[in-house]
Amino acid sequence: MPYNSARNPRPDEEMEGTMTALPTALYTAEQVRELDRRAIEEAGIPGIVLMKRAGRAALKALLDRWPEPVKITVYCGGGNNGGDGYIVAGLARERGIDAEIVQVAPAEKLKGDAERAWRYAREAGVAMTPFQEAPVPEAGIIVDAMLGTGIKGALRKPFDEAVAAVNSAGLPVMAVDIPSGLDSDTGVHGGSAVRAQVTPTFIGLKRGLFTGKGPAVVGEIVFDDLGTPDSIRPADEAATEILDLASLRSLLGPRPRDAHKGHYGHVMVIGGDQGFGGAVAMAAEAALRTGAGLVSAATRAEHVAAILARCPEVMALATASGQELEPHLDRPSVLVVGPGLGRSPWSEQLFQKAVASGLPLIIDADGLNILAQGRIGAGADADAGKWLLTPHPGEAARLLGCEPADIQADRFAAVRALQQKYGATVILKGAGSLVCGGGDEPVGLCTGGNPGMATGGMGDVLSGILGGLLAQGLSPGDAARLGVCLHARAADRAAGAGGERGLGATDLFHWLRREVNGL
């Protein structure tokens, strides 16, 4: 997505923000620092000019959301993020808005552009109070400008106390560039972070805003390029990108008028051990609603009648063993193995036969757990390049032999490690689901979805969607990228229609069909 360009104003020249739609490229903190350096040294934009632009963009974001604040209280740290805050307060004061600064870091520690910003705010008449002497605000808007992209691990005093004060105030909060305490690379925090309603962010999008704990604390994200030129952001440098459903949906294309079911593949869902028939039924129906030409389900005999009653389009096969499954594996073009599969001898037999078939595989749920046990690997005849793994953090931890907390500590590293270990395309589910297909392609990040999806069966629906896309000829990587976006968007539309609480996995089917058709 193109960035806005702008002329370079004098340091004292007023400039309106150039808010844009979110670009797709996501960066680490180190990469953003490099973008800053290029803007200053190569594009010739002085650092104080960038800081004043950031302050103006932040104030614009605040006033767009809260047009008539009775007061703005800005918590400022000692670095450039604090400098942005001093600019915000000074600009607000010049507009006649009551503004006060709470100094979490003393002014004498300020250097360079941050010190210049402090002098500007002081000359504008902004009241400044050391944090230790400042009461918790009781009215207005709080601006968090304490800590920027360099924070790692737990907060130290007085910043931990300041974050607690901001969160306890019960007032609206805007975080400048990133909520204090949040790791901009991983989206984790060391126990606490500012909870904001809006976060204006600058120069380049920080990937930690969009995954892990990020979505829970950033609120609405708005972006401003600060008038920097496109040349500082080469398109091939970002190792992570936001997935765009509109462009991905075009992978399917229109269907010819002489189409028949054989053109769109045959998905077989394998699973549904005793007591888990619903999982295989949901996955099978999801494959159907996504557009697969034929869908079958290999499951325990006791589930066949229920599957046929719910969705008679699905060919339900009573399957008592791997030996019974084998003759049926010459029919499907794609296998979804794992929904409700269990971990019994029956489960392992079916999984082994699926792997030995050489067909493209979606491996989910207990299929992943069996894979993690190490008794069944890719094998000499299996092509893991045709596999798509869909672990949540707990399953990912078992696959990598670590703890779920290790996965969440750096989801980007985890999804790459999974891809490298198994050679498959991997979707690491969770807030800000990640897609890694290996090679030089960027990790894809899905920004859709909502807390209503925290319920049983959502993963089964996703696995069926992926199977349906593979059956229609998409590569594992394209199926993964489009599939997570369709799944999230259908869930968002279902939640929009009836609310997040009580959202069921089968509520997605109506919206899924509309989304896959671009309606």
Give a quick set of tags describing it.
12-stranded mixed sheet; disordered N terminus; 519 residues; alpha/beta; 2 domains; elongated; 5-stranded parallel sheet; UDP-N-acetylmuramoyl-L-alanine:D-glutamate ligase; Rossmann fold; 38% helix
Describe the structure concisely for a colleague.
The chain has about 525 residues and is an alpha/beta fold. The chain folds into two domains: about 20-240, YjeF N-terminal domain (Rossmann fold, 3-Layer(aba) Sandwich); about 265-515, 3-Layer(aba) Sandwich (UDP-N-acetylmuramoyl-L-alanine:D-glutamate ligase).
Molecular structure report:
With 519 residues, the chain is of the alpha/beta class. It folds into 2 domains: 19-242, YjeF N-terminal domain (Rossmann fold), CATH 3.40.50; 263-516, UDP-N-acetylmuramoyl-L-alanine:D-glutamate ligase (3-Layer(aba) Sandwich). Helices cover 38% and strands 15% of the residues. It is built from 18 helices and 20 strands. It has helices at 29-42, 47-65, 80-94, 112-123, 159-168, 214-217, 245-249, 277-290, 304-310, 322-325, 345-356, 366-372, 393-400, 404-409, 411-422, 458-471, 476-498, 508-516; strands spanning 19-20, 25-27, 72-76, 99-103, 127-130, 141-145, 173-175, 198-202, 205-206, 220-224, 240-242, 266-270, 294-299, 315-318, 334-337, 361-363, 387-389, 425-428, 434-436, 443-445. Strand 12, helix 8 (277-290) and strand 13 form a beta-alpha-beta unit. Helix 8 packs across helix 16.
